[in-house]
Model the fold of this input.
Amino acid sequence: MNRSSRGARLLGHLVLCLGGLFFLVPFAWMIRVSLTPEWQLASGLKLLYEWKDLAFANYPKALTLQPFWLYFLNTYLVTILALAGEVFVSALVAYGFARFAFRGREALFLLVLSTMMIPPQVTMVPTFILFRWLGWIDTFLPLIVPSWAGSAFGIFLARQFVRGLPRDLDSAALIDGCGPFEVFRHVILPLLKPALMVIAVFGFIGRWNDLLTPLIYLNTQAKFTISLGLLAFQGQYSTQLGYLMAVSVTAMIPCIVLFLVAQDYFIKGLTLGAVKG
Done:
């Protein structure tokens, strides 16, 4: 490696490091505010470089002011059940689009993709009317059941990934006596793990941080999710910023852990599945 290429590489790493630090500033600010007593919150930007008088008591106190253990449990329940349906159905539908030829397949796939261009605000009112007619208001069903129809993004990503898999695998399984569903279960599904991990990570983060849907359908406090629980620290005239940030940092931990655990599969799924077909 000559001197010029080495200098260019060093400059690139320096730019990336500076960019990473820039994006870390909001997270550092959130953590610092979560450790700040109420009387110190008016210090402004000085908090970023004066890490003293840290109020670690903000965390246990904030988590006991509201039943956040129940909010966490509700959020886990809704997220896991909705995510299980989205991942499985998206993979199954993608398998059908990628492996079976039928009349109108491309038009139907285009129709599925077109749903990504419809703003959720357009379907909010008719969806609410439907769920009210079904008697699902103030239940977890409106937060879970729609995910069992799959997602357009998940179907697209999984379909592209399946199209990149050799059909010889399907043929070998069929010769061994497997049916179409057995081929999907024993051959396609294990190979789809990177793409499914991408769908799972995006789906988990989206549902874990969702505020609008629980705000519309949940009325009973015992059924609140974390996002709704955070509203307890925001009043009409004041906001308990230290407690709000303390719970926000705690709520962010599962998303970070999931990404770190699934990082290899996540990157592989984005770099391989999205460019196939």
Q: What stands out?
A: The two ends are 36 Å apart (CA to CA). The longest helix spans residues 3-34.
